[in-house]
Write a structure and sequence with these properties.
heterotrimer; A mainly alpha; B mainly alpha; C mainly alpha; A: mainly alpha; 7 helices; 1% strand; C: mainly alpha; elongated
Chain lengths: 175, 630, 102
């Protein structure tokens, strides 16, 4: 079981690295899907089968598809790939790299100053999750529902394609 | 009758209020009517009060009318109280009566000038302040009046404010008198600290009880009060402002700088005579200041070409005579000379104003000439005034007053023969410059033609003042001529008498003859030179020695230059150096630091999201480091 | 060997988070920034799951569900905003939208 965990972990890390270094947006999105799938496997190994399924369905299935649609709408062609290569210079990695290295060192240090904990393969039932959701966490559920509602309304409003009526001398090229 | 006293200063103040508030909306005639009426009514009531006071004097010859309590702070509670005694009665008579005549004269003189009602407002305010000065029962009221007349002097000298030169003259007057005022204020502080009161009556009682003759406190106080008097009366060393103050209209020069304000110093010294007698050395200095000033001003008057400046220097010189009189302890003689001087000097100024207006604002004597045929009334009144000024024997008021001073200077209690000699020499010079002025202005051929003639409004005051300067002297006749001491008897109920011991009638007669001879000699010499042989005068004046002397005396013996170099230039230099205001730097430094930090921090607000994310990362790292490792 | 140490899970979550963070800082294209943001969210969810499995409690999974809901809402609104910005600025450069500089 542990082996599977480590393999899935390596896959996740490598694909995430690919995500952040690609020039083509669609390539990056596809690598992201792979990363999400491997994280779902890790969830399964950790005994959380329910959220593993959720990860695949919602995250990889809906959110990434949303990204793909938007990228399609933006119609980023080869010109944008060239722009990306201009924007992505090697020297740009140094600063964030240093900062992140410091962060990861600190994180590892924090983790290893405490005693080791182990995860058993007992796993948690979806039933338990459901009872927890609609029991103690009911308020959170309601709030999440309202948040999603707000998201829908906001996305609809912001994404509307407005046809601005301008005087013919003021006509601008509409995208 | 005496309780109408408060109306005397109240009427001019009321006139000022009316004119200040409504003057701009009143027609000219109405404004003039208000101004003249308030002065006239004040004069009328003063005369009535005077008659009542002389016929039935109150106890101790002092009448105090307390109006209300002014304030009460930490043991100091002056009240608004008016004090009437022979000295202040003389002064208010002169102020209101001469003031009324000058107001009447100004109705025509200032006609057509812009700011007509403003003029009368300021004049009324001046009369009111001067009355408060002389009527005040405590020194704070006196100081109030003192500052008030200083303010009005500034406002009136700079009356034609559109010309900046007038503003400079007004400013100079105010600043120079300010020096004196500060000295006087310190004197008042010392008086209050030491004697605990500023009430005049109480000071005059308590000063001899608390202070010994010649001790340091009365000497200091008297010196400071003298400083104030010297500033207001334009004596040495603060005499530089009066000649420049002639930039104001002629009625202003007549009222303020001849008859009343400049005599405030004389009033102060006379009022505080107890303190001055407690400090004999200062009293001697008063006499010396008077003597020096009268000589310096006399020589300067000899070289002026502007008729008003001649009269200004003449005023300085005559007030020097008053100071001389006070210095030798001849208190009543000084007050007498003040009264007569007010009459003839106002007359001379008003007369010169008529001439100036008639010759279309020409003030240079050398461009006048032949006026005696153009303006006969003015000519004869001017002659009468000049005769009084030179103290022509027997028939002029000036003779009696000046002679009294010279008599006491020679043989009084505090006689000083040097002062007498200075007074005599001064009389000679007075005769010289006065005759010069009269000859150049009135005689000879006319160089400027007549522009307009005065009406009765301007001529009546001249005639009245001429009568007064002639017959006003007859109330005080010396022993040689029938020993009439109406005036000095009147004054000496309040001020100490000066007994001339060992001086019999013969000394007096000799002194009078000497004075008369000097005066007639002076008139004759001036007549000889300026009328008969003007070329000899011109050749002396334009010779190198004569030219230097002329320029030196014309510029007032270099005092202006001296003060400019000593005081004005350093102060201006310091102001220039401090233009960037280094004390302000402390505060501007704080503002500057804030701006520097603002610019530094605004650099971090780049508007770019990734930059902000970097900031968050840095913050997170620092927080984690602190939380974990510290 | 059925056990996986919790630290490994957390370290994995940390690495993924860091990678996403680097992506946010380095990339200039707004779509990529949003994508890296999703990586970070996913990584924090992994951390929750690992902790929840350690204590054998559903709370970790509940938190993950909330994170998921929030990520969904945020992505939809964020992408709509990206579309708006693209219409206004005609470019997807994040540095182009610096009108709030001061």
């Amino acid at each position: 079981m542990a082996i599977v965990f480590y393999i899935a972990a390596i896959v996740a890390v490598i694909s995430t690295v690919m995500v952040i270094t690609r020039l083509n947006a669609v390539h990056a999105l596809l690598y992201m899907v792979v990363s999400l799938l491997s994280v779902a496997v890790i969830f399964f190994i950790l005994g959380a089968a329910f959220v593993a399924a959720l990860e695949v369905i919602v995250y990889a299935g809906a959110i990434m598809v949303l990204f793909v649609f938007v990228v399609m709408m933006l119609n980023l062609g080869p010109a944008s790939a060239e722009a990306e290569s201009r924007w992505l210079s090697a020297s740009g990695w140094i600063g964030p790299g240093i900062l992140s290295a410091v962060l990861i060192v600190e994180l590892v240090y924090i983790l290893f100053t405490n005693a080791r904990q182990d995860i058993t393969a007992q796993g948690v039932d979806p039933r338990q999750v459901g009872i927890a959701l609609y029991g103690p966490y009911i308020l959170g559920v309601e709030l999440a529902a309202m948040l999603l509602m707000a998201g829908i309304v906001g996305a609809y409003h912001l994404g509307r394609y407005r046809n601005v009526m301008l005087h013919r001398y003021l006509h601008k090229e509409l995208p | 009758m005496l309780d109408l006293l408060w109306i005397v200063p109240a009427l001019p103040f009321l006139g000022f209020l009316i004119l200040a508030l409504f003057g701009a909306r009143m027609p000219g005639k109405a404004a003039a009517a208000v101004g003249v009426a308030s002065a006239g009514l004040s004069a009328l009531i003063t005369i009535l009060i005077g008659i009542s006071f002389i016929s039935s004097p109150p106890q101790g010859r002092v009448y105090i009318q307390t109006l209300w309590e002014w304030f009460n702070v930490a043991g100091m509670n002056p009240s608004i109280a008016l004090r009437l005694d022979p000295v202040s009665l003389t002064f208010i008579f002169v102020i209101t009566f001469v003031g009324f005549l000058i107001h009447l004269y100004s109705v025509e003189y200032m006609e057509g000038e812009e700011g007509y009602s403003r003029f009368f407002a300021y004049m009324n305010l001046f009369v009111g302040s001067m009355l408060m000065l002389v009527l005040g029962d405590n020194l704070i009221l006196l100081y109030l009046g003192w500052e008030g007349v200083g303010l009005c002097s500034y406002l009136l000298i700079g009356f034609w404010y559109k010309d900046p030169e007038n503003g400079y003259a007004a400013r100079k007057a105010f600043i120079v008198t300010r020096v004196g005022d500060t000295a006087m204020a310190i004197g008042l502080f010392i008086l209050f600290t030491e004697l605990g009161t500023l009430n005049i009556g109480k000071i005059l009682e308590q000063a001899p009880l608390n202070w010994a003759v010649g001790s340091s406190l009365p000497v200091l106080t008297a010196a400071l009060l003298l400083g104030g008097a010297v500033g207001k009366s334009a004596q040495l060393p603060l005499q530089t402002w009066l000649p420049d103050a002639m930039a104001g209209p002629t009625p202003v020069s007549a009222l303020i700088h001849a008859a009343t304000m400049v005599t405030a110093g004389v009033y102060l010294i006379a009022r505080m005579h107890v303190i001055f007698t407690l400090a004999p050395v200062i009293l001697t200095i008063v006499g010396v200041v008077g003597a020096l000033t009268l000589l310096i001003a006399g020589f300067s008057a000899l070289t002026q070409s502007d008729i008003k400046r001649v009269l200004a220097y003449s005023t300085i010189s005559q007030i020097g005579y008053m100071f001389l009189a006070l210095g030798v302890g001849a208190w009543s003689a000084g007050i007498f000379h003040f009264m007569i001087h007010a009459f003839f000097k106002a007359l001379l100024f008003l007369g010169s104003g008529v001439i100036i207006l008639a010759l279309h604002h020409e003030q240079n004597m050398f461009k006048m000439g032949g006026v005696k045929n153009m303006l006969p009334v003015t000519f004869w009144t001017f002659i009468i005034g000049s005769a009084s000024l030179v103290a022509l024997p027997l028939i002029t008021g000036g003779f009696y007053s000046k002679d009294l001073i010279l008599f006491y200077a020679f043989s009084g209690e505090r006689a000083n023969h040097w002062l007498y000699a200075a007074g005599l020499l001064g009389a000679f010079i007075t005769a010289l410059y006065t005759t010069r002025m009269v000859v150049i202005t009135f005689f000879g051929e006319a160089k400027t033609h007549l522009h307009r003639k005065p009406t009765w409004i301007m001529e009546v005051p001249l005639i009245v003042l001429a009568v007064l300067s002639t017959f006003g002297g007859f109330i005080e006749l010396p022993d040689t001529l029938g020993h009439l001491t109406l005036f000095s008897g009147f004054i000496q109920t309040i001020l100490p008498a000066n007994s001339a011991e060992g001086a019999g009638i013969s000394t007096e007669l000799i002194l009078q003859i000497v004075a008369a001879v000097t005066v007639i000699l002076g008139i004759f010499i001036a007549y000889l030179f300026y009328y008969k042989n003007p070329e000899k005068v011109a050749s002396f004046r334009w010779s190198s020695f004569g030219n230097t002397l002329h320029n030196y005396w014309k510029k007032g013996w270099g005092f202006d230059w001296l003060y400019d170099k000593l005081i004005v230039t350093p102060v201006v230099w310091i102001a220039e150096v401090n233009k960037s205001d280094f004390i302000d730097l402390i505060y501007t430094f704080i503002a500057w630091i804030n701006r520097v930090f603002n610019r530094a921090f605004s650099f971090t607000q780049s508007g770019r999201v990734r930059w902000y994310a970097m900031g968050i990362a840095l913050g997170a790292i620092i927080t984690l480091t602190i939380a974990v490792f510290l | 060997m059925n056990t996986v140490p919790m630290e490994s899970g957390l370290i994995l979550a940390g690495i993924l988070f860091i990678l996403g963070f680097i992506g946010v800082l380095v990339r200039r294209n707004m779509v990529f920034i949003l994508l890296s943001l999703e990586v970070m969210l996913n990584a924090s969810g992994l951390a929750f799951i690992a902790a929840g499995s350690r204590w054998v409690q559903p709370d970790g999974q509940v938190m993950f569900i909330f994170i998921l809901a929030m990520a969904a809402a945020e992505v939809s609104v964020g992408l709509a905003l990206i579309l708006q910005i693209f219409r206004d600025f005609k470019t997807l450069d994040a540095d182009a939208a610096d009108n709030m500089r001061g």
